[in-house]
Amino acid sequence: MTSTLSTYLQISNSMAKWQKITTAEPITKAQTEYYQKNIGNIKTPKELVNNYRLFSYVMNAFGLSDMMYAKGLIQKVLEQGTDDPKALAYKLNKPNILALAKTFDFAAWGDAATGTKEVKTDVVNKFIQQTMEDDQGRQNPGVQLALYFERNAPNIKTAYNILADKKLLTVVQTALGISQYMSYANIDTQAKMISSAVNIKDFQNPKKLQSFLQKFSTLYDVSNGGATSQSANVPNAMISGSGLPGVTSFSSSLLAGMQNLKLGGY
């Protein structure tokens, strides 16, 4: 079985190649051609949410496929726009929805909103990337998580950004050995725990980011019973409680193996 680490590195180091492969897939190609041909004809939020093929493409592009049922909600978000800090796009506290509202800015551009570069080009790029990550996720969720974190790392400015995104939080919890039960703690307590365990600014440094994701990938396989990279030389180990509420620590044999990874401080 191929390890999460080796698969993640293979894709991350050849991203353009994998995006090209995904773009050429028959289903993806057909979906994109339909979107490019028809999105310019959409003049209102209502028209967008009522066109299933276009709405599905857009929602998938922004990682919101699990909210396809919320047509009324998304329509209101797009109608209100993002100029008012009290707009629904902000109240929902969901970064992907806010990004969607800023891209399809009907409130500011009216019926010309679907003619912008962001709508014509950037949404397509997002869809291809999201589709590629989803394809990987069906084979190994750990690879999908690592790729997602890498893509969104530039937007992580505080621990609260991580706490607001379940996928980002899962990566951090796994890499730092923090139990998922931490999520039951006060939000400020969670933020302090993350901030004390990792320097958020390191996620803006490509080398440190990849070191962090290498550690995540290896520990993901350990905690999920998957394969680990032979070069990592991480032994199978029991995960033991640390005695601290909300924190999971790893056995000494695992920690010794992790030291061999030489992950730049992680």
Brief synopsis:
The protein has helices at 4-12, 15-24, 26-38, 45-50, 52-61, 71-80, 88-91, 95-103, 106-109, 117-139, 141-152, 159-163, 166-176, 187-197, 206-224, 252-259; strands at residues 239-241, 248-250. With 266 residues, it is an all-alpha fold.
Give an overview of the whole structure.
It contains 16 helices and two strands. The protein is mostly helical and about 270 residues long. It has two domains: about 5-130, Orthogonal Bundle (AGR_C_984p-like); about 140-260, no CATH class. Helix 11 (about 140-150) packs across helix 13 (about 165-175). The radius of gyration is 20 Å and the shape is globular. The model is unreliable at about 230-265 (pLDDT under 50). A hairpin with a 6-residue loop joins strand 1 and strand 2.
Q: DSSP helix count? A: 16
For the largest sheet, list the strands in their spatial order: 1-2
Tell me, rounded to a whole number, the average pLDDT: 86
Shape: globular
- How many domain units? 2
Fraction of residues in β-strands: under 5%
The CATH architecture of the largest domain comes to Orthogonal Bundle
Structural class: mainly alpha
Q: What is the CATH C level class of the largest domain, in words?
A: Mainly Alpha
H/E order of the elements? HHHHHHHHHHHHHHHEEH
Secondary-structure blueprint:
Elements: H1 4-12, H2 15-24, H3 26-38, H4 45-50, H5 52-61, H6 71-80, H7 88-91, H8 95-103, H9 106-109, H10 117-139, H11 141-152, H12 159-163, H13 166-176, H14 187-197, H15 206-224, E1 239-241, E2 248-250, H16 252-259
Antiparallel strand pairs: 1-2
Helix pairs in contact: 1-11, 1-15, 2-10, 3-10, 5-10, 10-11, 11-13, 11-15, 13-15
